[in-house]
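Model it.
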Amino acid sequence: MRQRALILLPAAVLAAALAGCAWHVVEPGFGARRTVRTLNGEVADAGTAPVDVDTAAGQLAVEAWDEPRVGVTARIQCRGWSCRAARSIQLRVAEEDGRIKVRLDGWPHVSSHGLQAMVTVRMPRGAAVDAQLGAGRIDITGIEGDVEAHLGVGRLQLAMPEAAAARISMDTGLGEAALISSSGRRERHSPLGASLRWEGRGRARVALHCGVGIARARLG
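Modeled.
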């Protein structure tokens, strides 16, 4: 399992993450973001190949469906000067070394303020997924294979059938971890890191890591 170093961010950003602030909220003086590009990609016969998703900022939704393909839509949003950088971003969806790789190429390393991607990945429910996002929100819904998710700052949410899960581990560097199952609700809050563990009778192993913010799992 890959580990991602925590990112040190200004106090205002930390407070926003802990409050569950959505990253598309309009910031005073900068104007609203607008969608300038919509990119699509797919792997037609993905089967149960693991899916790796890696993007920088915005929202990432991973949804299960009953088709053998992986379909991806990315809406690139920007405002101000960041709209120039948006022109060079490309969506890459390809099979590499037995895994389906989803990433946005051309994302600027600097001058990306105001730039975000709203990415939706639809994939076979029995496949495994490894989701990586720098800042924003991750929602993973209906997946019954192994799940690993790393979020630097923001909100990370998982909804999975309880019968599918074997083991769930949740960790936050600063913030809240919460899990809801048939046995009730469990929560941990800590400025020094919060951790939760749960074991079931399924097969899927789940690891949720959030550097700063909120991690929640709901087993239905």
